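Possible regression after last week's pipeline update?

I re-ran a chain I had predicted before the update to compare outputs. Posting the input and the new output here so someone can diff against the archived version. Not blocking, just want to make sure nothing changed silently.
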Amino acid sequence: MLSSEFTRFCPLADVPVGGKKAAKINDTWVMVCNTNDGLFAVSAICSHQDKPLFNGRVRNCKVTCPVHGARFDLKTGEPLDLPATKPIATYEVRVVDDWVEVCL
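New output (post-update):
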């Protein structure tokens, strides 16, 4: 059964437009990115070799893995470049009372 519970992630002020923040929710590393197209929550771990995505560049609703250069669509999690062939997880995200909340 899928959970529909949201967890407080961080204050919205911690992720201004153009910013990102990674944190663990339960045992899952999540990265929230604030783009011109809105907030997105995705896995903070690359699907290629389980490397962290946090230091990757976020541009045009895409995150680039800093290790091997694979890019992922923040909206869908789909890989856009090799060597990644599997998507990263995406999560529902919302803002409540100036807090970013994520649903795993």
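Follow-up from reviewer: compared with the archived run. The radius of gyration is 13 Å. Marking as no regression found.
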